[in-house]
Write a structure and sequence with these properties.
heterodimer, A: mainly alpha, four-stranded mixed beta sheet, two-stranded antiparallel sheet, 32 helices, 8 strands, extended, B: alpha/beta, Rossmann fold, six-stranded mixed beta sheet, disordered C terminus
Chain lengths: 833, 261
Amino acid sequence: MHWKNIRLIFLREVRDQLRDRRTLFMIAVLPLLLYPAMGLGTLQMSMNFTEQPRTVVVLGEKHLPPPQLLEGNRFVSSWFTHPDDANKLKVVTDTAVELGGGGLDAPLNLKLIAQAQALRKLIDEHTAFDIELEQAESQQRDPSQGPADESLIAVSQRIADLKARQAALDRELIELFAASQIQVLIVIPDGLRENIERVNRMIAKRQTEDITNLSYPRPTIVKNRADDKSVVAYNRVRDVLDAWEDEILRQRLADLGLPKELPKPVGSVSRDLAAESQISASIWSKMFPALLVIMAVMGAFYPAVDVAAGEKERGTMETLLICPATRTEIVLGKFLTVMCFSMSSALLNLLSIGGTGKYMVSVASSAGKGVFAQGGAITLPSAPALAWMLILLVPLSALFSALCLALATFARSSKEGQYYLTPLLMVSIGMTVFCMSPGIEIYPVHQASWFYSVMPVVNIALLLKALLLNPGNTGALIFVIPVLVTSIGYSMLALWWAIEQFSSEGVLFRDGERFEVALWLKHLLREKEPTPNFTEAGFCFVIVMLAQFASMGPLQQLLMSAAPGEVGLQMMKLMLIQQLTIIACPALFMTLLLTTSVRQSLRLWLPNWKFVAVASVLPFALHPLVVELMSSLGWFFPKLPPGFARLMGAMGDDEQPLTLILIALAAAPAICEELAFRGFVLTGFSRNGRSGVAIGLSALTFGVMHMIPQQVFYATLLGVVLGLIAVRSNSLLPGIVFHFIFNSLGVIRERVSAHLANDHTEKFRQSFWHWFATIDENGLHYSWLTLVICSVIASLSLWWVWQSGRSKPGAVTVNNLLPSEFTPTTSHSTSAS
Amino acid sequence: MISVQQLTKGFDDLRRGWVAALDHVSFEVQPGEIFGLLGPNGAGKTTCLRILSTVLRPSSGTATVSGFDVVTHPAEVRQRIGFMSSNTGIYDRMTAFEMVEYYGRLYGLSEELLKLRLERLFETLQMNDFRDTLGAKMSTGMKQKVSIARAIVHDPPVIIFDEPTSGLDVLVARKVLATVQSLKDQGKCIIFSTHIMREVEKLCDRIAIIHKGAILAIGTLPELQEQHQQPDTEELFFDLIERYDAKESGSPKPEIGTAKN
C-alpha cells in the first residue's frame, strides 16, 4: 500500500468535489444560509404572534374596588410580573364605550360590548338557575324546607327541568362565546366595590361577628379552554387579578395593623441553582449529539455517491481501475475524501446552528419577546466540550463515510445511490431519538452503561451528551476508551466492507440488466446449484429473524394462557415448536427448493470419528469457561427483564422431567440450529472461498438469532467454535454432538445448583468436589483449578481442530479452507486477506 | 509480450443462465505488432481485454503480459500496459493537463520525467490548445486525445485499444488510427479490437476473428484469405460467423471448427 497513491487520489477527489457546485451547495452553502434563514423566519413569525394582543372585555368597570386595576384600554402594568406583558392584553370596558372612547376601534368595541352584554344576560340567567337548582336540591334532601304542598316527585321533576334548561343555556353560551371576538370576559357584579368597602370597614372596626357572612355576588371570568388564544389570555388575566387581589388583602391587613406576611404562614422560597452556562449546556447536550449524527450521515452521503456511483455513471471508474493503484488505495483515498466532507459538513452545520441559535436568543431576550424571553442569554459550549465534539466526530464520520462508500459503490448510478440514503438516514434518526430520550445516558454509570458504550453510533452520541453537559466530568471519561476503540473497530469493519465491494467485479461491472421478480424466481428454481450461495444464506437468516419476530406475540399469548403450574411444561413445548418451525424449516425448505445437493448443502456426511470424539470432550471444557466468563461480564450487559428470569427459573424447575428439558433445550436446538446455521447458512457463506469470513458471519448470525444481549455474546463465541468444527470436519454431526452436550451441561448445572442450594450445601463443601466448584446464591461456580484444567483441554482440542482439516489437501472441504492467496478469486484485493 | 492461453470467463445471467463470455481463447502478440481482435458487438472482445488489464479475473486459463501473470501480479501488469477504450472516460471537473498529470503520478513517474513526458505528449498529440479546458467542455475528439495521452503517459510497452474509434467522426478516427500506427512504429506491442473491417485491413499485422466468446480464425490477413479462399475481408468475416452459427445450431458444416484454437 502506497501512501503516495492514497494522497494523490484523496487530493484529486477533494479538488473534484470542491469544483462540484452541487456538493459545495449541500455541504457548505446550505447550512450557512439555511439556518440563519430559518432563524429569521422563526423570529419574524414569533414577533407577529406576540404582537397580536388578545381582547379582554370587562363589564361593570365602575364597580371595581380600589386599587386601580385598569388604565385606559390596558391593565395597569405594575400588576404583571413582566410589565411589558400589559401590551399583550387589550381591555375593552363598557364605561369607556359609553363615554365614546376607543377612537378608530369604536365600532369594533361597540360590537364587542354588545356581544359581552348578550353573554352576560345568559350568564345571569345561568346563575339564577343555579340558585333555584340549589334550593330545589336542598328541598329534595329535606322536604320540610320547601312549600308543604309540593310532593317529592314534583321537586325532582323541577330539578330535571331546570337542569335541561341550564344545559340548553350552556350550549347557547358556548356558541355565542365562540362566535364573539372576545378571548376573556370579566363580569363585575353590581355593588362589588360597595360590598368590599363595607367588609373593609367592618374589619377595620373589628366587627367580627358579621364578617362570617360574606356572601355577596362575585365577579365571573369566562374563557374557553379549548381555544389556545383564550387560554393564553386567561392565564395572564388570572395572574393580574391575583396580584391585584393580594394588594386588596394587604390593604386590609395594613388597616388592622397586622403584618403583610400573615396570609402566607409558610411562604417557601424556591431557588434555581442552574447557572446560565448550565442551562445552555443542557440544551446543547440534547441537541448537538443528535445533530452531529444526522449531519455526519448527510455530509458523508452525497460525496460518497458522487465519488463511487457517480464515477461509475460517468465512465471514469474503469479508467481508475486500470491504473497501478490497488483497490485498497483507491478506496482509502475516496474514503478520506468522504470523511473530510462529512466532518466539515457536520462542523459547519453545528457552527451555523449554534451561531444562529445564540443570536436568536439574544435578539429575543433583548426584545423581551418570543419563546426564550425568560431563558436569559445562551452561552456556546465551552472549549473542552467543543474539543470532545471534534474528537468524537472523527470515528463517527469514519463509520458513516465507510458505510456510505460501500453502499454507493454497490449502486449502479447516482440515482440508485440516492435511494440508499433513506434507510440509512431512518436508522440514524432512530438511534438519535433513542439517545435523546431523557433516561438514556451513559453517565452516571449504571447497569447498561458499558453496553451502551459499545453500541455503534449510540455510544458516541451518549458519551458526547454526557461530556457536553459537563465537560470536566472525569467520571464519564472512562468511557472514552471503549467508545473510541469500538467505534474505530466498527469503522474498520465498514471500511473493509467498502473495499470488498470495490474488489467485487460483480459490483463494479453491474449491468443495467432488467430485473423481473418472476424471471429471477424462475432462474433461482431452474438454475439450481449444488449448494446455496451467499445471498441465499443471508436470506435464510433474514427469514429466521422475521419468523422469530412474528412468532413472539403468539408465543407469548400461548405462554400466558397456560395454567400457573404448567408454565414450564408449556414453555418446553413452545421451545420445541419454535425450533422446528422457525429455525429448521426455513433452512430445510430453502435447501430443497434452491439447491440440488441436500447432502452437500447441509453437510450430511459421516465425519472422521476423531472429530466426534473431540466435539464430545470440548463442551465439558468450554462450559465452565463460558459460565465464568459470563458471570464475570455481568456488569457489562443490561439487566434481564424480570419476566424472562422467571421463565428461565421455571425451566430449571425440579418439577419438570429431565428428559423433556433435555429434548426441548438441548436436543432440539442442537439439531435445528446446526441444520440452519452450520448447514445452510455456513455453506452459503463459504461459497466465496473464504472460510474465515464465512465462520465469522455464520457465528454472528447465530448469535444475533438469540436476541438477548448476554446470549448473543456467548452464542457468537460458540458459533465460531461450531463453525470451525463444521468446516474442518465437513460434517454436521460433531457440531450436533457438541451443541447437545453444551446445552445439556447448562441445564444440569441449573439442576445441580438448585439441588445443592436446598440443603446439601454443607455436605458439598466438605466433599471432594469442592476443589472444583463452589456454590453461592447465583448457583454453581467453578474454581480456578477447574478453569485452568478446562482452558488447557479446550486449547488443545481447538488447536487440534484448527490444524487437522488443513493438513489434508485434496479433500472436499480444502477448497474452502485454502488461504485466500491461493485462490484466483481474491488475489486482486491485496487488502482483504 | 502478451500470451493468452485457454482463457475462459463466464458469468451468471438471469435469462440465459451460465454464459461463457470467453471460451478457451488463446493467442500471442509480439512487440512491434498490431494484433486485431475483430468481432461483432458482444463477441467477448471487451471481456478479453478487461482480463488483460486485470480489471476482471478469468474463470480459468492464464494470461501474461511481459511475463507477468494478470492474476498473480496484477500491479506489475497494470504498470506495463496502457489501456484505452470507449469505457475509459475522463473526469468532467479536471482539465486535460491535470488529468494526464494525475495519471502520470499514479503510474509513479518522477516529477522531472513527468514534466518531459507531458510536454512531449501534448506537443505530438496537438493538445496544447485545450490543455486547460475542463473535461465537461471538451469535444469528443479532444476527449479521445486526452484518453490516449492518459493511456500512454507512462510509456508502456503494451497498449490495448478497445474500439477506440467508436462514436468518432471520420476525421478524429483517422487521427486516432494514425496515432496507433505511430505507436507501432515505436516498437510497442498493441492489441486493437474493433468491429470495423477497414481499420483491421489498414492497421493490423495479424487478426483474430472472435464470435460468441470463441476465436474462429487467427492469422495474418493474407493467410486467412488464402486459408478460406475468400479474398474479401468482409465476406470472410461473415462466412466464418455464419458457419459457426450454423454449427452451433446443429447443421453439419464442420470445416471451420478446426480453426478454433
